[in-house]
Design a protein that fits this description.
9 strands, alpha/beta, 8-stranded parallel β-barrel, 11 helices
Length: 273
């Protein structure tokens, strides 16, 4: 009996620590602004006519009053490129990595058989000009500090509303320490269900379980819509009242379901208005 009670106590203590680790930040008054907005995933693209993460896709999102979700990578010359993949192979047909290019070299490549070039963050900020909110995903490729420092610097003078997010907790933690007023979010999913994710079992667990929230203190959690019922996400949202975003919504039915559950949606491939 004593052994059972000791084991039970240990289990309860571990579970309590796990729950405490999921706590985020609810004190940022700016966070409320970004909820309830529908964000066009990589812009309001319509392939093959309007490529993802293109100036045309962002212009169309602005015209329709949608928030914009976009991705940024740090290039070799210290500029920020707006593109999802580290490689240009899928979107520009070139077997080269974005981090190895400079701004001048970037102009040689066009998106998805269109005349659209891969934009820089500066170009996107000039285009949007504060008309809709931005949800900026930080894509780290072993360059967390440089990427985050550059993003903070380039966004410093921007007069529009923006928030940041990343799958990499180190990026979220960097903003917590160096730009605490900027609304920050932790991207996550059940990495054990995603066959495309090549991470160790340990990393998959830590990132899926959101147990690094104690370190990053995110203002919101952006979770894979299909995996949203996972325990860690539910505890973070319902017990600790962290704001919840859902990605990527691809139908009106899913959008209505997500919004009925209190999620802010990141959508693509349909008219969300």
């Amino acid at each position: 009996m004593l052994t059972f009670l000791i084991c039970l106590s240990v289990i309860l203590i571990i579970f309590a620590l796990y729950v405490l680790c999921l706590k985020g930040n609810r004190k940022n008054p700016e966070a409320e602004y970004f909820t309830g907005v529908r964000y066009a995933h990589r812009g309001l693209h319509d392939k093959p006519k309007i490529p993802e993460n293109s100036l045309s896709a962002f212009s169309l999102a602005v015209e329709n009053g949608c928030g914009i979700e976009l991705d940024i990578h740090l290039m070799a010359d210290g500029e920020l490129a707006v593109i999802h993949d580290a490689s240009l192979k899928r979107t520009a047909g070139a077997d080269i990595f974005i981090e190895d290019l400079t701004c001048d070299e970037l102009k040689k490549y066009t998106l998805e058989d269109s005349d659209e070039h891969i934009p820089t963050l500066k170009e996107v900020l000039a285009l949007v000009d504060g008309r809709v909110p931005l949800l900026i995903e930080l894509k780290s490729e072993g360059n967390v500090k440089e990427l985050c420092r550059t993003a903070i610097e380039q966004l410093k003078g921007y007069k529009g509303k923006y928030c940041v997010e990343s799958f990499d907790p180190r990026c979220v933690a960097f903003f917590k320490k160096n730009a605490p007023c900027v609304v920050r979010g932790q991207l996550a999913e059940n990495f054990f269900k995603d066959k495309n994710v090549k991470l160790s079992v340990v990393l998959k667990f830590f990132l899926h379980a959101l147990v690094l929230n104690f370190y990053t203190r995110p203002d919101f959690i952006a979770y894979n819509f299909e995996h949203r019922k996972d325990l860690s996400n539910q505890i973070a949202l319902k017990l600790w009242k962290i704001k919840g975003f859902a990605w990527t919504i691809r139908s009106i039915t899913d959008m209505k379901q997500a919004e009925s559950e209190g999620y802010t949606v990141i959508f693509e491939n349909f008219d969300a208005n």
